[in-house]
């Protein structure tokens, strides 16, 4: 253990401190450390999206290792995070750990696309996944890309079911005000921590709230609404609330679509990632729902997720295990509220 560092803290307590986002958000030193980390990573050109890792300067390799949650020397960590006091704050709130050999590591990895950042907490156990765990996967990046494609105009955007807050953080580059919501308080706390990584200009545009879909939100006030809707049938997502879409996997996406489109201002665009299910009797709940929107004057579109993609295997598994289901495919649903259309 580094003598100068150990002399200033109770290391026995720090070595056993558990993840505590509530305390971290109340700690000025912790928030400053995250802001410094975000600034250093942005300046270094750090990108970490699944399957791609990049940093512009090889001299910042240790910084990249730190952002990935790997262990680095405590002195280097202090340099990247703003000094020993910053390290202590992170350790005291469970956002970092330190070994007796002075190896420091963060309790999360930083996700980044070069425009926005978010943190993804590591699980406390490699075998047990908490029901309220925070999710980020390849579909997180798919939603980010689709948001860039379809979120083209307006001032206000909202990311329903935000998870880590990555997509909401990304949307601050295009919108004056971005709301990030999630029913899972662990997720909204994580999104608030992610917000601390952003520069002040982006941070001031992002607001995080704990909320059940669109409950309590004012209808007709958002120019862009997006959601990565849970779509896995209940029998295949036991214990993982972030993936459970209801009995067939479409019940929760249906609610997101119905409530999310109510939030659209005239001319606004809604997108949702979900599964399109076709049953043996020929019924297709998603297409039936979109036909109803079209009768009301909305424009709708279904964009299939290109293959190969992890969701195709998952969708095939759903088709094999859900009685009466003929096929399932992962898609992006796009709904445009034309000017003059009344939201009911």
Helix content: 25-40%
Order of helices and strands: HHHHEEHEHHEEEEHEHEHHEEEEHEHEHE
Oligomeric grouping of the chains: single chain
The largest β sheet comes out as:
7 strands, mixed
Shape: globular
Low-confidence stretches: none
CATH fold-level name of the largest domain: Rossmann fold
Tell me the number of strands.
16
Q: What's the pLDDT, averaged over the residues? A: 87
Order of strands side by side in the largest beta sheet? 10-9-8-11-14-16-15
Q: What is Rg?
A: 21 Å
Distance between the termini: 63 Å
Based on helices, strands and strand pairing, what is the structural class?
A: alpha/beta
Strand content: 25-35%
Structural notes for this entry:
By secondary structure, the protein is an alpha/beta fold. It has 2 domains: 3-114, no CATH class; 138-336, Rossmann fold (3-Layer(aba) Sandwich). The chain contains 14 helices and 16 strands. It has helices spanning 3-6, 11-14, 21-26, 28-43, 61-67, 74-81, 84-92, 138-150, 166-171, 185-195, 200-203, 251-262, 285-295, 310-321; strands at residues 47-49, 52-54, 72-73, 96-98, 103-106, 108-112, 117-121, 156-160, 177-182, 206-210, 222-228, 232-233, 244-246, 264-279, 299-304, 325-336. A 7-stranded mixed β-sheet has the order 10-9-8-11-14-16-15, with helices on both faces. It has a 3-stranded antiparallel β-sheet with strand order 3-5-4. A two-stranded antiparallel ribbon has the order 1-2. β4 (96-98) and β5 (103-106) form a beta hairpin. α4 packs across α7 and α6 (74-81) crosses α7. The radius of gyration is 21 Å and the shape is globular. 42% of the residues are buried. The model has no long low-confidence stretch (mean pLDDT 87).
